[in-house]
């Protein structure tokens, strides 16, 4: 269900990125499938699609306390038609046929000690009605700053500004094996309370906020419960918990 290609704790100065040409092959049968899926989803009532630009993960390299991302450009249409709706294309044509767009997901901690995520609404294409971190996709910009992109997503979904955070750390990279998509995971500590954050929720993607205490017992109840978490929500909790409770806790709970 989940894989963790990268596990650690990185500050902004420890992550770099550069651009390269896309290695994704163009195969007519795959492109026809992407177009068909796009048209099918676009025709559904209440679904609004935009073929926005996204960043494709070509490779990553870890060097001691830092790591480097090699990126190319892709788009939401390709992502929808491969990873989101037809990731099994990789079984026939190889892993490179997928968009492999990088997601950004954050375990958000309020100043009064709550772990916070979103309850997605029913109209989104990605895991509707499930609990998922406040998140988005890495968008191609030049120069590209990964942590600025995280702050942008949190501003769009919760109207949080740069001054509303005490710290943001990258805790690793996870892959939802059903989608085969790389997701960079972050832990952010806000200086705003749960109530203040909840009051600023953007209801375009979420119908509400999910919250939990951050002590061991509360997190144990969360992980053992029947809440409808997305795989990436579980990954964000596990990687945040690793920072708080240690490697042994992480290893014991990731299974």
Number of helical stretches of at least 4 residues: 8
**What does the average pLDDT come to?**
94
Helix content: 25-40%
Strand content: 25-35%
How many E strands? 11
Give your account of this protein's structure.
By secondary structure, the chain is an alpha+beta fold. The chain has a single domain, classed as Alpha-Beta Complex (Nucleoside Triphosphate Pyrophosphohydrolase). The protein is 32% helix and 33% strand. The strands form two sheets. Strands 1, 5, 6, 7, 8, 9, 10 and 11 form an eight-stranded mixed sheet that branches. Strands 2-4-3 form a three-stranded mixed sheet. A hairpin with a 4-residue loop joins strand 5 and strand 6. Helix 1 crosses helix 2 and helix 7 runs antiparallel to helix 8. The protein is globular. The N and C termini lie close together (10 Å). The relative contact order is 0.18. The model has no long low-confidence stretch (mean pLDDT 94).
